[in-house]
Amino acid sequence: MPADVTIDKEINLKGEVCPYTFVRSKLVLEEMDIGQVLRVIVDHEPAVNNVPRSMENEGQSIVNVGKVNDTDWEIVIRKETE
Questions:
Q1: Which of 16, 23, 35, 75 is the most exposed place for a label (fewest CB within 10 A)?
Q2: Positive or negative, the Cα torsion across 55, 57, 63, 66?
């Protein structure tokens, strides 16, 4: 992840599956201000592709998608639009 990115909020969605990973991420993002960054932790591999694609379709930007450990990934999203 870029060193100049500050995480404003983090949610752990381990154990959640699609579409709940996207829906819960979206609900948290709606409470945040434009420009803020949300880090989402998931362990459901399809969410690694589905959440970023859905967020981009909503007008948000994806800062990073990466493996955290053997079972978990992070999806870092910057809120660009309401």
A1: 35
A2: positive
45-80: per-residue pLDDT in tens? 999 999 999 999 999 999 999 999 999 999 999 999
Known catalytic residue at 51: no
What are the strands of the beta sheet with 37-42, ordered from one edge? Answer: 9-12, 37-42, 73-78, 61-67
**Residues shown for the chain:** 82
* Set 11, 18, 28, 41: catalytic member: 18
Q: For the CA atoms of 47, 50, 53, 58, what is the dihedral angle to 10 degrees? A: -90
- Angle between the 45-57 and 20-30 helix axes, to the nearest 10 degrees? 40
